[in-house]
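re: the backbone from monday

yeah here it is again, tokenized this time
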């Protein structure tokens, strides 16, 4: 790996990563397309770190810049998501094995969910990167999991692997959640960026992976749960997972 692209949507989702890079040495900041890209070394790994902001277009544009302007040869996304599957709880971690856009529908011209003219709906994460993120998440929970429950109602968090779905919608109602579960029974979590990054990376042959901490259950309580989790724990999870993932990769 020459240079790893690391992205998130919101500042809390990067944890202390940029501060760590600045403490470790020179960090070059480049502004492009209204975003800042931080180029330096993160826990021993040559990296370019940026905030995409929210949604699929933002994520795709940022992934494209990481590949073409900053020469990232792999991309990792870290952030929060809504739990969709009944066994996925707030405080759990979901590492994507595959990703798809739940709101893409050009039927009847193309099968529902399929990216028109690309001939596929699902995009795989890189297995080695996903394995490494899952190992980092398990280590984080084993070493710091007990302390998490003291700050938020998180009990015995678990790491899941499987389908993560993305769309330009904050899913926050019983009806929307159950519609998702019915349509995509294997979906573990819902968010707003991952599948867009996976598609761009697929098109350019760049390995990518997505790790998501579950901030809410994508139901009517989601807005409050999301905001509280973002403020209380999102940075702790991201810092804990990324630091272990990067040190193992260095
Ligand atoms: N109101 C918030 C925006 C939240 S958008 C603000 O002003 O900052 C939610 C973000 O977290 C997205 O980046 C998405 O990827 C993720 N996310 C968390 N829970 C989600 C849910 N239930 N549905 C969709 N995305 C969710």
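seq for it, each position gets an aa:
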């Amino acid at each position: 790996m020459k240079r790893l692209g690391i992205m998130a949507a919101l500042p809390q989702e990067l944890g202390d990563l940029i501060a760590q890079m600045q403490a470790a040495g020179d960090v070059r900041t480049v502004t492009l397309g209204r975003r800042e890209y931080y180029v330096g070394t993160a826990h021993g790994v040559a990296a370019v770190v940026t905030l995409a902001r929210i949604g699929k277009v933002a994520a795709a544009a940022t992934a494209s810049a990481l590949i073409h302007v900053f020469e990232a040869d792999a991309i990792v996304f870290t952030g929060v998501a809504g739990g969709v599957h009944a066994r996925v709880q707030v405080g759990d971690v979901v590492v994507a094995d595959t990703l798809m856009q739940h709101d893409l529908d050009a039927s009847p011209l193309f099968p529902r969910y399929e990216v028109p003219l690309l001939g596929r709906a699902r995009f795989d994460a890189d297995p080695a990167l996903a394995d490494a993120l899952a190992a980092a998440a398990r280590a984080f929970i084993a070493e710091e999991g007990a302390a998490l429950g003291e700050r938020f109602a998180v009990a015995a968090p678990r790491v899941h692997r499987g389908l993560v779905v993305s769309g330009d919608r904050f899913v926050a109602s019983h009806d929307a959640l159950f519609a998702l579960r019915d349509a995509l029974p294997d979906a573990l979590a819902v968010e707003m960026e991952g599948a867009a990054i996976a598609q761009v990376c697929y098109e350019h042959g760049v390995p990518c992976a997505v790790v998501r901490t579950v901030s809410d259950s994508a139901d009517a309580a989601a807005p409050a749960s999301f905001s509280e989790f973002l403020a209380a724990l999102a940075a702790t999870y991201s810092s804990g997972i990324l630091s272990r993932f990067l040190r193992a990769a260095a």
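Residues 123 and 198 are 6 Å apart (CA to CA). Residues 4-249 form a domain with the Rossmann fold fold (CATH 3.40.50.1580).
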